[in-house]
Amino acid sequence: MRWDGHHAGAGGMPRRTFLLGVLMAIAAALLATLLPRRLRGRDEVADGTLPTPPLRPLTSRDLYGRHDLAG
Amino acid sequence: MGIVECTLCPKQCRIPEGRSGDCRIRVNLDGRLRASTYGYVVAAHVDPIEKKPFFHFHPGASALSIATAGCNLHCDACQNWEISQGNPEEVEAHRLLPEDLARVAARERTPFVAFTYTEPIAYYEYAYDSAEACRSRGIGSVLVSAGYANDAPIRSLFRVVDAATIDVKAFDDGFYRAHCGGGLKPVLNTLVAAREEGTWLEVSNLVIPGMTDDPGKIEALCRWILSNLGEDVPLHFLRFVPHYRLENLPATPVQTMDTAWKIARDAGMRYVYVGNVPGHSSESTKCASCGAVVVERAGYRLQSVRLADGRCPRCGTLIPGFFGGVR
To answer: What is the pLDDT along chain A (71 residues), one digit of tens a residue?
Structure first.
């Protein structure tokens, strides 16, 4: 079959198709970067329950020890 | 089931099932919005209320200061980024339901609980319920927030807390978008809402060299406060020290902090402070009329309160704020 562009090589795709593919890949990568994080989301619920952090008891060292948190 | 829209902050995240919003806290679980950090406190510390900062609200009082993980902003200069930007399930926590928190505050005899360190708006339900639980035990609560919230929820929260310090990152919407993942306008709305709801309000502003130290922007912030909140709102300029994504920057020169202080005073702000500069001449409260020191501090430590019924003992000027003793 004869495409209207130049062949990239024996058995290769036409140059125009190749360039179009490259451009589409770049556009898709850019779009993914620009897409707000809130639409991409983050998998949170693996088994239908809310994730819980590792726990430890509150001690007087927590309440009165040195810390470097602002605010 | 399906997508749930969170209406707490201006991001209005549309959250697919099983995923969180931008704050990493608010999760769509079976089609219902849930706050995953409710009752999971990642920091709890008894601080002087001056550290929040509050300089005109019960000087010398202690505040049981707490936070859960997560934040709805992502500031390049965040000092507490390990807990504010971490995934909630990965940050070690204490299990404290609101009534537990009130009980700890009562046991430690702190007259206030402070919702601080990360962003109380992101852990809104926990802060709200805890404020109510504390109030029922005669314990007050204060909010330390960036103020990036929608109008209705923030007004409701102001009605259950006693005071708020709102941090204006910069009087520059472009800065908010480029370096915080937010916007300026909702923050200004929050400041007005605090005033209208009768919540005691103080304002802070982090001065970052080359980013938020533009004298024109600082003056514009002061002019806006004067026009919309009044000259008596305490304004705290906080010195930047290198953190998180801005570790390449130097600490703010003290001279720059002095310039910010002078701009605010020249604009007409009456109570202006410089924070994170121990020993700075502005860390004590001076009567705006006669210059007498009325609340003396050394860093965050209260040295003395020299007020008579809330007035300057030398000239009788009423100093705005709450200076009554608390247990």
So the answer is: 444 444 444 456 778 888 999 999 999 888 876 665 444 445 556 567 888 899 999 999 999 998 889 99
Q: What is the 3-state secondary structure (H, E, C) of A17-46?
A: HHHHHHHHHHHHHHHHHHCCHHHHCCECCC
Which of A36, A57, A71 lies closest to B80 in CB terms?
A71
Give the pair of three-digit tokens for residue A20: 């179009």
Q: Counting runs of H as helices and runs of E as strands, what totals does chain A give?
A: 3, 0
Contact B79 A67 (CB under 8 A): no
A34, A38, A61, A68, best to mutate vs chain B, most B CBs in 10 Å: A38
> Which residue, A36, A29, A54, A50, is CA-closest to B19?
A50
Helix (H) or strand (E) holding A64: helix A60-64
Q: Is the ipTM of this complex over 0.90?
A: no
* CB-based contact A58 B52, cutoff 8 Å: no
DSSP class per residue in B209-249 = TTTT--HHHHHHHHHHHHHHT-TTS-EEEEE----GGGTTS
Q: Which residue has tokens 């001449």?
A: B281
Q: Give me the DSSP letters along B266-279.
A: HHT-S-EEEES-TT
Q: Is the pTM of this model over 0.80?
A: yes
For an interface test with A, give the residue of B89, B126, B143 to mutate (most A CBs within 10 A): B89
